[in-house]
From TrEMBL:
Domain SHOCT as annotated: residue spans: 249-275
Protein's recorded name: Tat pathway signal sequence domain protein
Every DUF4429 domain range: 11-103, 137-224
Pfam families: DUF4429, SHOCT
Organism for this UniProt entry: Actinokineospora fastidiosa
InterPro entries in the record: DUF4429 (IPR027860), SHOCT (IPR018649)
Length: 289
């Protein structure tokens, strides 16, 4: 077991999964504490890296696209202190952090690190709720409730509590506030108008202050996304890549390595990805006669 423990929490990797346990320190972000312990299958992880810094640095786990409902919802917009897949590392834990990175790097993973078509993590535990200035938003697995406060616009208060069955929700949009620009948590409901301003949209909650409580709405969004029925038909298969294009990419990668832009490890990883793409083509090409 490779393990790193800091004030922010503990990461442990046993070859099968990365266990992320948030710390109890008062400085640990509310979102991390509310999310609780995560068990991330190795198959869901694209990579783990250690980023050196003046006071130790940080571990960062990069999940495969489509594997985690929370990562899909936030789209990289969580502040660092709220990101459960980043762990600040004390100087005394740097050796352990390096060991954890190496342990993951040398773990065989037949699945690769590309996108996946289904979630490999279950999403936040239920029930889940968040309180912001204009509403309490909650989800119990079967319905979303939007309970308006006195600070909500008149049109929302007059409408009363909104109840959205999960089978009517087709998508969720989440965006935190930034500077003077409001954020929003919006539930896209079948047959509803998509062109309603957040101040009037009965299926949307404005996020205005950038507080830790507002960021908790990301957990509600992720829990809903994790449970939206995914019964849409499979997309048609993509056309196989052109071999000439792939050969040109290999030559370009070699040039980047020779010029020092890519390290040998980076070149090897990129070349491997290109060669995997070639397997979609008939390779080597058939010979005449």
């Amino acid at each position: 077991m490779a393990e790193v423990t800091t004030a922010e929490g503990t990461w442990g990797f046993d070859g099968a999964a990365l266990r992320i346990t948030p710390g109890t320190d008062r400085k640990v972000h509310k979102l991390r504490k509310a999310l609780g312990e995560l068990v991330v299958p190795a198959a869901a992880i694209a990579g783990i890296s250690y980023e050196p810094g003046k006071k130790g640095g940080a571990l960062r786990a990069r999940l495969r696209e489509g594997a985690d409902p929370l990562s899909q919802v936030v789209g990289g917009h969580l502040p660092e202190q709220a990101n459960p897949y980043r762990l600040a590392v004390d100087p005394a834990q740097v050796v352990n952090a390096d060991y954890l990175v190496e342990a993951f790097r040398f773990t065989p993973r037949a699945e690769g690190d590309g996108p996946v078509g289904r979630f490999l993590l279950p999403g936040p535990a239920l029930p889940v709720s968040a309180t912001v200035s204009e509403a309490v938003v909650s989800f119990d697995g079967s319905r979303v409730l939007l309970e308006w406060s006195w600070q909500a616009p008149d049109v929302k208060r007059r409408s009363g509590t909104q109840e959205l069955p999960i089978d009517k929700v087709t998508a969720v949009v989440w965006r935190p506030s930034s500077g003077l620009t409001d954020g929003v948590l919006r539930f896209i409901v079948r047959d509803a108008s998509p062109n309603v301003a957040p101040t009037s949209d009965l299926h949307a909650v404005r996020l205005t202050w950038g507080t830790e409580n507002e960021l908790l709405t990301a957990l509600v969004a992720a829990a809903v996304v994790a449970r939206i029925p995914r019964s849409r038909p499979d997309a048609p298969a993509a056309a196989p890549p052109d071999v000439d294009v792939l050969m040109r990419r290999l030559r370009e990668l070699g040039d980047l390595r020779d010029s020092g832009v890519l390290t040998e490890d980076e070149f090897t990883a990129a070349k491997r990805a290109v060669l995997r793409s070639m397997s979609a083509e008939e390779w080597p090409p058939p010979q005449d006669g």
